[in-house]
Amino acid sequence: MSDNAEIVPHRERAPCLDQQLRDPDEYGLSEETVDRLLAERAERDLGQTAQLLHKRGHDHAAALLLDVEAITYEKDYVGFESDTWTPTYRIVAVLDVETFLLYRVTEERITEIVDVLDTARITTGTA
Questions:
Q1: Averaged pLDDT score across all residues of the chain
Q2: How far is the CA of 111 from the CAs of 53, 82, 84, 98, 99, in angstroms?
Q3: By the 8 A CB rule, do 54 and 82 touch?
Q4: Which residues of 89-101 are buried (b: 16+ CB within 10 A; e: fewer)?
Q5: What torsion, rounded to 10 degrees, do the Cα atoms 26, 31, 35, 37 define?
Q6: 3-state SS, residue 34
Q7: How far is residue 76 from each of residues 9, 61, 91, 92, measured CA to CA in Å?
Q8: How far apart are CA 113 and CA 122, in angstroms?
Q9: Calculated CA dihedral for residues 34, 76, 17, 33, nearest 10 degrees
Q10: Dihedral sign for Cα atoms in the order 112, 96, 74, 45
Q11: 3-state DSSP call for residue 63?
């Protein structure tokens, strides 16, 4: 090791995006920043989910996602943490589908999409 080498202490792992979005005030995120982050993540997750569905042989669900106009994530209020009275939220995915395509949105397709969407989010570290 050279004389100029510096030992840098290990830093705590940064909170994942979902943690930050569950409590945006704690992390100093403005409402505009939260909306932008959710929109960016939603588009990426939509593409990754369609790709994973196809790889797993769920071609009907993958095709359905190709026809989705938009995916948005919304904060759904859950309640307060009992010890700190901090409001908590869960993130809900909303698919925007044209009315004439609703017949393709079945319980089976929703289950396939939700399972793979969760996997895609966990794999990318956004869950």
A1: 81
A2: 11, 32, 35, 20, 20
A3: no
A4: bebebebebeeee
A5: -40
A6: helix
A7: 38, 25, 6, 7
A8: 14
A9: 0
A10: positive
A11: helix
The residue behind tokens 């396939």 is: 112
| pLDDT surpasses 70 at 63 | yes
CB-count burial class (<10 Å; 0-12, 13-18, 19+) for 34: middle
β-partners of residue 79 are 88
pLDDT of 57 above 90: yes
* Tokens matching residue 11: 């830093």
Residue showing tokens 């030992």: 7
* Distance linking the first and last C-alpha atoms of the chain: 39
Which secondary structure element, helix H or strand E, spans residue 122, and what is its range? helix 107-123
Amino acid, single-letter form, for residue 121 = R
Q: Which two tokens stand for residue 32?
A: 């505009």
For the entire predicted model, the pTM comes to: 0.62
Q: One-letter amino acid identity for 60?
A: H
